[in-house]
Structures are given as structure tokens and as C-alpha cells.
Design goal:
Layout: H1 3-22, H2 28-38, H3 40-65, H4 74-90, H5 98-110, H6 112-146, H7 154-180, H8 183-190, H9 197-223, H10 226-242, H11 244-253, H12 260-280, H13 290-301, H14 306-330, H15 345-348
């Protein structure tokens, strides 16, 4: 990628973070008090997320190798993973920043088609694992409620039913996408949006063959590389479960729950409900407001005080800002040496 293009991504992400900081409605006094209260658990949370990013990079590497050789080092993949998520955190609609950036950075190594398909497949797998994570939380909540440890009224039953239908529909669409590809269908769907019709139709006409090849590579992962498919899914799903420890560490500070396994189950459910609510508000940069609202409602449903929800949301926001800043800094590191372009004969045609 040219430095000029990279600088545009960097500037866009930096502006988004600055805007977020000025709209973060928490006083410095409260922020510092919460950071001090978190203490060494904040370092444990940051360490946990380093592990999670390594797992994300591992997933992406498996996907890349599923379609051919992977000439890019694991540490560069990790760097692009952290930077990609940083741009996604900082930009509205999430995928508007990180995915194009990763495609452009990966393109010199494996060509445009493989770069595009691998990035799309990683994004699909990341979201696909989230859907299964949310479905799991529905059954976990019902079991805990039947044991009399959580409320299960009519209102909550309706919410759980909505979650199940939403996740079931999402899983069905992704399974269809893995079997038949989804890029061409997505562009055709965009062509029905007023104002984008001419652009989408022109794009399809001029890139029809390339789009079909990308869809073919997407469907190959599930149909011909089942080992890569299930390995990448398992890593992403385990990663979502491990992420619950972030909230678990903070609940321990308040002696929330009853300790041990049940507290972890509460953390698992809080993460699930909060992440679903925040992702429904994907158009907000850094999911501003959606994440805080999700935490407030989730901890209340678990019978915890609003102070716990506020504390958890602030520490999670601190962690997001830390890795967003780290991702933006990594964008400026290790770019001096141009990679050797390795493109298959099929892509050269």
C-alpha cells in the first residue's frame, strides 16, 4: 500500500478517536478513580486481549492458507489484525475502515482476489461465531433461570425469542453464503438502494468475473477445506467465550455473583447481551452509547447495581481506546520494506 493511502486511513482513524474522546461523557476524576479501582486487573484485561488478537490472527492465517501459500509472516498478520480492528472500532458501520485497509495491505503478497476473499472470510467467520455465541447464551440463560437464579418473565422470554430468531436467521444466511458465496448477491442487493443503483450495476458489469472468483474462493473454504473451516470457527468461538473473562475480572472487584463458575456464567451472559445490543447499533463509531446502554441493561438483568455496569463499561472503553491507539501506531510501523508480490496464474489472467 502506498504511504499516501495509509496516511488517509491513519488520519481518518485518528479523527474518529479524537471525536470519541471529546464525546466521552465521563469526568477525568471518575475515569482515573475507576482505573485505580481496576488495579492489576486492568493489566490482566490487556493481556487477555493480546491473546484474543493472537487468536484472531491465527484464524485469519488458517483462512489464507486454506486457499494457497501464505507468504506473509504471522507477526505481520497480527499487526494488520490489531490495526484492522482499531479502524473498525473507530469508524461508523464497522467494516468501512478495517476490511478495505487489510485488503490493500495484503494485496501485494497474495493478489487482489485472494486478499479480498480471505478478509471477507475472516469477517464472516468472526460474525458467524458471534451468532453461535449469542445462541449459546440463550440456552445458558434459560437453564440458569429454571434453576431459580435469574428472572424469566414474559418480557425476558420475548427478548430471548427475538434473539433466537435473529441469530437463527443470521446463521442460515451465513451457511448459504458459505455454500454459494455472497459477494455478487451483496452487490446486487446494494443495487436496489436509491442513489447506489448506477454504481452497483456498473461495478458488477466491470468486475463480474473477479467477483465470481471471489465467491468461488469463499465457497471453497466450507466445501473443500472443511478442516480450515472448522478450525477457524473453533478458534473464533473459543475466543468469544474467553472474552467473558474481561467482565469476570471486573465482577470479582465488586464480589458480584456468588463467586467461581456462577460469576463467570453471569459475565458470559452480560457479554453476550451487551455485544448483541451494541452490534445492532453498528453505525455508531466505537459503538458510542450502545455499549454503555447494553452493559446497564445486562447487569440490571443479573440483579447487579448500575454502578457495576458503569464501571465495566468505562474499563472496557479504556481497553478499546488503548488498542485503538496501538492499532493506529502499528499502522506506521514496519512498512518500509516492499513485499514480493505472489499472485497465482489464475489471478494474473
Amino acid at each position: 500500500m502506498k504511504n499516501k493511502t495509509r496516511n488517509i486511513f491513519f488520519a481518518f482513524g485518528l479523527i474518529a478517536v479524537i471525536v470519541m474522546l471529546f464525546t466521552f461523557k465521563v469526568s477525568f476524576t471518575q475515569l482515573w478513580a475507576d482505573i485505580c479501582h481496576a488495579g492489576y486487573w486492568l493489566w490482566a484485561i490487556l493481556g487477555l486481549w493480546i491473546i484474543l488478537y493472537i487468536m484472531n490472527a491465527w484464524t485469519w492465517r488458517i483462512i489464507i492458507r486454506g486457499s494457497g501459500p501464505c507468504p506473509i509472516s504471522f507477526w505481520r498478520i497480527l499487526k494488520l489484525t490489531i490495526t484492522g480492528f482499531a479502524l473498525n472500532y473507530a469508524t461508523p458501520a464497522g467494516l468501512m475502515g478495517g476490511e478495505p485497509y487489510k485488503i490493500l495491505e495484503l494485496k501485494p503478497f497474495i493478489g487482489t482476489q485472494r486478499a479480498t476473499s480471505s478478509v471477507l472470510l475472516f469477517a464472516m467467520m468472526h460474525i458467524f461465531a458471534h451468532f453461535w455465541f449469542w445462541v449459546t447464551s440463550i440456552f445458558v440463560y434459560v437453564v440458569i433461570a429454571l434453576c431459580g437464579l435469574l428472572p424469566l418473565g414474559v418480557g425476558m422470554a420475548i427478548i430471548l425469542l427475538f434473539m433466537f430468531l435473529f441469530c437463527g436467521g443470521g446463521i442460515y444466511l451465513f451457511i448459504r453464503g458459505y455454500k454459494n458465496g455472497m459477494v455478487v448477491k451483496l452487490i446486487r442487493f446494494i443495487s436496489h438502494i436509491p442513489g447506489l443503483r448506477n454504481w452497483a450495476n456498473t461495478f458488477i458489469d466491470s468486475h463480474q468475473e473477479d467477483l465470481q472468483k471471489i465467491d468461488h474462493q469463499i465457497s471453497e473454504l466450507q466445501s473443500q477445506n472443511k478442516r480450515s473451516f472448522y478450525a477457524s470457527f473453533a478458534i473464533e468461538y473459543i475466543g468469544r467465550t474467553l472474552q467473558s473473562f474481561e467482565i469476570y475480572f471486573m465482577l470479582l472487584l465488586f464480589d458480584a455473583g456468588t463467586g467461581g463458575g456462577l460469576t463467570f456464567v453471569y459475565a458470559f451472559l452480560i457479554l453476550s447481551f451487551t455485544s448483541l445490543f451494541a452490534n445492532l447499533l453498528f453505525f455508531l463509531p466505537l459503538q458510542l452509547g450502545g455499549r454503555e446502554g447494553g452493559f446497564a441493561m445486562s447487569v440490571a438483568q443479573m440483579g447487579m447495581t448500575a454502578d457495576i455496569g458503569m464501571f465495566v463499561s468505562i474499563i472496557c472503553r479504556v481497553r478499546e481506546l488503548f488498542f485503538t491507539a496501538l492499532g493506529l501506531l502499528l499502522m506506521k510501523v514496519g512498512n518500509s520494506k516492499d513485499p514480493i508480490t505472489i499472485i497465482s496464474n489464475s489471478e494474473q489472467g
